[in-house]
């Protein structure tokens, strides 16, 4: 841990990359943890994709209303708040996240790149007009403007990542001297390319994850014995 403290203190540009493991200590299930992940309960091939939006809209909507209610019942944990404070103090310079829960914004981070979109926005899949989140939660899942199907502002399997966000994340990764992964299995592309892009551009790579990842062999340091929250609290205390 001491070497990570030194790297954070020496780095002039540090980027954090988070996955679902960042939010499990808020209560939200991740996707692939053994027996606990969300995809152990639901099959993403049935629901979390464009086909379901177009051909199984009722099931699709029921699933995402369930996900929305679940996310709304949790909030950022102290680890999120530490990342928010670190950006304010320029200890870190941005957060690239695969998460759609909006917790990094709630915790005070501004430079947040949500590669997989966000549950904070809803829009019509036909006219693209933004829709009211509360109305969606209360069952109005057709566009008030054109009657088209309303969907969450997240990236579904089979869709492209938002181009502007992806390009910004790439530019931030190019600038990183230190790139810290928090709570991702690093199994979903193209998001899982960023740690390697950072490495190829000379950054040090730290991976904090309960389970092994396919990129561990490229990391300068791997932390598996601590949870994300424990890791951030411990580092934060030693940086003070
Ligand atoms: N501390 C440390 N590691 C944790 C913790 C924790 N408290 N909780 C979970 N983890 C680890 C798990 O061991 C797992 O390896 O976090 C990792 C989360 O991996 P995934 O569940 O695969 O989530 P993620 O990498 O974010 O998935 C990427 O897949 O389904 C899509 O769009 C979805 O954004 C998601 C993407």
UniProtKB/TrEMBL annotation:
Keywords: Acyltransferase, Metal-binding, NAD, Transferase, Zinc
Domain of life, source organism: Bacteria
Deacetylase sirtuin-type domain sequence ranges: 1-240
Pfam families: SIR2 (PF02146)
InterPro entries the UniProt entry points to: DHS-like_NAD/FAD-binding_dom (IPR029035), NAD-dep_sirtuin_deacylases (IPR050134), Sirtuin (IPR003000), Sirtuin_cat_small_dom_sf (IPR026591), Ssirtuin_cat_dom (IPR026590)
UniProt key word Acyltransferase: yes
GO molecular function: NAD-dependent protein lysine deacetylase activity
Gene3D superfamilies the record matches: SIR2/SIRT2 'Small Domain (3.30.1600.10), TPP-binding domain (3.40.50.1220)
Enzyme Commission number(s): 2.3.1.286
Binding residues annotated for Zn(2+), in chain numbering: 124, 127, 143, 146
Active site: 116
Protein name: protein acetyllysine N-acetyltransferase
Organism encoding this protein: Ornithinibacillus xuwenensis
């Amino acid at each position: 841990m001491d070497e990570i403290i030194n790297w954070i203190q020496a780095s002039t540009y540090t980027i954090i990359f988070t996955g679902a493991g960042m939010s499990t200590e808020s209560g939200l299930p991740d996707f692939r943890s053994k027996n606990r992940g969300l995809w152990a309960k639901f099959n993403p091939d049935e629901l979390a994709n464009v086909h379901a939006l177009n051909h199984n809209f009722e099931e699709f909507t029921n699933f995402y209303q369930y996900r929305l209610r679940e996310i709304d019942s949790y909030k950022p944990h102290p680890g999120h708040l530490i990342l928010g404070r670190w950006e304010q103090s320029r200890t870190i310079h941005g957060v690239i996240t695969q998460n759609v829960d909006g917790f990094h914004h709630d915790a005070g981070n501004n430079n947040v790149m949500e590669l997989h979109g966000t549950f904070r926005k809803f829009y019509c899949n036909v006219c693209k007009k933004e829709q009211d989140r509360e109305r969606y939660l209360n069952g109005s899942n057709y566009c008030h403007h054109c009657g088209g199907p309303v969907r969450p502002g997240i990236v579904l399997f089979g869709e492209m990542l938002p181009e502007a966000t992806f390009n910004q994340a790439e530019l931030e990764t190019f600038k990183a001297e230190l790139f810290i992964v928090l709570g991702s299995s690093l199994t979903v592309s193209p998001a899982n390319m960023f740690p390697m892009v950072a490495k190829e551009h000379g950054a040090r790579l730290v991976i904090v994850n309960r389970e092994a990842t396919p990129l561990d062999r490229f990391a300068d340091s791997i932390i598996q014995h601590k949870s994300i929250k424990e890791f951030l609290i411990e580092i934060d205390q030693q940086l003070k």
